[in-house]
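Researcher: Please predict.
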Amino acid sequence: MHQLRIPALIALLSVLLLTGCAQPKVAVPASLLQCQPQPALDDVMDDHAVARWMLDTVDAGEDCRAKLRLVRGLVQS
C-alpha cells in the first residue's frame, strides 16, 4: 500500500511545485505589436524626396524601438 502512495505523492508535489513557478501571462496591447511600416522607396526621387524618405525611415525605426521598450517593461516587470 505504501509503495503506491509514495509515487503518487511525489507526482502531486511535483505538479504543485511546477505550477508555483509558472509566470503569469502578460497582456500586451495590440498597438504595441505593430510598428510603422518602412516608407516606400520610389524608383525616381529628387534630393528632397530622398531626405524625407530617410527621415521617415528613422522615425519608423524609432517607433519600433519605443514599442519594444514598452513591451520589454511589461514582460520583465
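Model: The CA atoms of residues 13 and 22 lie 15 Å apart.
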